[in-house]
Amino acid sequence: MENFNSQFANHPKLEMLKQFVLEHGTYAELKKNELFSVQGKVNHQGAYIEDGIFRYTRVDERGNIHIVGYTFSGEFTGSLSTLINPNQPSLVTIEAACDSHIYYIPYSKMEEFFATNAETMQIRCILAERSYLVMYRRLLDMYCQTTEELYLDLLKQCPRIQEHITLKEIASFLQVTPETISRLRRKLEK
Fold it and tell me: Please, what sign has the CA dihedral across residues 133, 27, 33, 86?
């Protein structure tokens, strides 16, 4: 799967973190719908996604589930809130959207890595900055683009996303109804 969060994944210093996780992390295969992190619980680990897709969901006060993000092969996944504050529960649930292969590592080991020197501390800052940029761009896009533009942007970033994510999930991610996505697909096919 292509890099969805390209401004997040494409930073040369993150290669150093990737190598650390591959060397010191634990390989695991997660089946589709297997949970990596649960909203409201402290998640003590992050992961590098070797192959797969992870879905980020959040349950609101009414019990509705909202898809708020994805991470793909070649990206990192984990609870940003817990990485920033080790006692902060995860704000989202993270689950495998398909069978996935990861290398996971406890945040305590990552903290040791970040504390090694100024360069590794800078990597921690880059992770936070890149996460912010992804979220900020998504916020601006939701306000400034039409649904069609959002959908086309999603397809441009991830041409094969429809092979892995249902129409209903794409609709939830774009905050529209499945019927809206269906109409867009029909329109674009013409």
Answer: negative
